[in-house]
Every structure is written in C-alpha cells, then in structure tokens.
Amino acid sequence: MIKTDIPINQGSRATTEQGDGPPTWERDVIDKLIFASLKEQRRARRWGIFFKLAMLAYFLLILGLYLPKDIGAPRSEGHTALVDIQGIIMDGSDASADQVISGLRAAFEDENTKGIVVRINSPGGSPVQANHIFNEITRLRAKYSDIPLYAVITDICASGGYYVAVAADRIYADESSVVGSIGVLVNGFGFVDALEKIGVERRLRTAGKYKGLLDPFSPEKPEEVSHLQSVLDEIHQQFIRVVKKGRGDRLQGPEDRLFSGLVWSGREAIRLGLVDAVGSSGYVAREVIGVEEIVDFTWKQDYLERFAERLGATMGAAMSETLSARLGFEAPGLR
C-alpha cells in the first residue's frame, strides 16, 4: 500500500505544480501590461501637475500685471499725476478721446493728486477727438480748480496735439521739440488723365447733385472745391478760437504767421508765445508742482480688450480707407 501511495502523491504533486498558474510567457505579458499601465498613470500624473503649475504661474503673472505696483508700500501724502498722449489722436487709438479722458478723470479724482502733467507726443489727428479732450480738460480744471494741469511736449506737438495742449495752465517743451501746425488739411488724388491714357471710361451715378464730391476719376468742379474749402476754413477758425482762448495775450507775432500751419522749434515757440518755458515732465513735477513722485494714470486696457478693439479698429480703418479711396479724399484732419 505504501509503495502504491507514493507514485500517486508524486503524480499529484507534479500536476499541481503544472497547474499553479499560467505559463511563463503569459505571466511576462501580464507583467509588462501592468508596468506599462503604471508608467502611463505616472506620466499622466506628472503632466497634470505640470499643467496645474503652469496655470498657477499664468494666474500669478496676470495678477502681478494688474496689481498696483506700489501695493503694500506706505502711501505718500501726494503725487504728480501723469497722463500720456502718444501717437495720432483718433478714435480707436491709444490717444483717442475715450482713453485720454478716462485717465484724466482718474487723475483728478485721486485724493493724493497735487498736480497733473499731460505729456504729449503727437502729430495731430481728428479735430473731433482733439476737441473732446480739450473740452473735458476745461471742465475738469473748473471742477477741480485747486489742481493745476500742465502740458509737457516731448518730440512733437503739432496740429491736434497742440489743440489739446492749449487747454493746460502752462505749456512746457524741449528746445528741440516741434510745435505748431495750426491748420487743417484734407488729402486726395486725381486719376482723370490716367484713365484717358489707358482707355477706361468712368461711370458714376449718384442721387444728390454733389454726392460724388471730388470724385478722383472725374474732373474737379470749382463749386465743389469752393464748398470743401469753406468747410476747412470753418474748422480752421474753430482751431484758432481754441488757441486764442487757451493762450490769450501770451501769443506774440502776426496771426497770419501763427495760424498759417507752420511748425517751429521749442525755443522759437516760446518766443511766439505758443509755449511758456523749457521743461520736462520730471522738471514740472519737481520744480513747478513741488511733488517729485510721479504716478502714471494713462488709461491702459487689458490685453483681451485691447486685442478686440484693435481688431475692430483695423476693420474700421480698412472700411474708412476703402470709403476714402472711393471718395478720393480723407476726412479733414488736424495734422
């Protein structure tokens, strides 16, 4: 019996060893799949951590851009407010009336503002936009009569830029600044002879006798030129009235020279009474207002708003250019 049991047990043990699990190659495949799955999970976890950190860094960057730079610092008793007017004064630009007026209002309303510097570097632009800024400066100066406002010219302050500057208490410039251009212009082209040379016939149909005013493909008509000139003269007279109101008896020299559209250096502009003295924004803050610390109140949009408005402005400019091309001239401009 004993001899019989032994082989049976051995055979049973051999069967059990063979049936303990899957063959070796299957176990290797399962192990590889498990390790691959664990590796993929670790990789996904690392990427998740990376994106979370990236989002945190982006949030902190945006927060840093919009937080006041002097947060946490002790508040001073007063400062000089700065509002920049840079570039062409036109709707949709950084120097539009909406942008500039927003900065001016914020500067006047700040309880620590002791004086305001409007720093101008502009060749001019829209007479409408310039007039809006001039009127708002006049209103704010009357409302906050204890806060002086000074214009400081950097490189150029011509036409519409000077229109704005005369609203200030005093105007400062560098000796080499370009100042003046008190006039109005409108641009256009004529292609009548060109069409005749290439054999193209212009066909224009309008409703309204002067709807095709100064069409670039048709000969000029004296009555149309005369009408447009009267519009320019009217805007020019408005410009002259604003300059006289702002500068008063400080103007020196004959009017036919001052209001001829000429430009002068800063030094010559002082002699003509268009500018009061030589000085920079730092000089005015320190020596005139008496508060050297300057706080920038220039209105700045966030990047998304700026992108959206720039896109709209680009489309608007394209439409305006198309319209100007069809009419053959631009809208009157102070530049």
UniProtKB/TrEMBL annotation:
Which stretches make up the Peptidase S49 domain?
A: 143-286
Q: Which domain of life is it from?
A: Bacteria
The protein's matches in SUPFAM superfamilies, at most eight in alphabetical order, are given as:
ClpP/crotonase
Q: Name one GO molecular function term.
A: serine-type peptidase activity
Q: Where are the transmembrane segments?
A: 49-67
A Pfam family reported for this protein in Swiss-Prot or TrEMBL: Peptidase_S49
Please give the Gene3D superfamilies that the UniProt record associates with this protein. Answer: 2-enoyl-CoA Hydratase, Chain A, domain 1, 6.20.330.10
Coiled coil residues, start to end: none
Q: Biological process GO terms, please?
A: proteolysis
Report residue spans for region: Disordered. 1-23
Q: Specify whether Membrane is a keyword of the entry.
A: yes
Cross-referenced InterPro entries: ClpP/crotonase-like_dom_sf, Peptidase_S49, S49_SppA_C
What keywords appear on the UniProt entry?
Answer: Hydrolase, Membrane, Protease, Serine protease, Transmembrane, Transmembrane helix
The Polar residues compositionally biased stretches are: 7-18
Q: State the similarity comment.
A: Belongs to the peptidase S49 family.
According to UniProt, the name of this protein is Protease-4
Q: Which organism is it from?
A: Candidatus Kentrum sp. SD
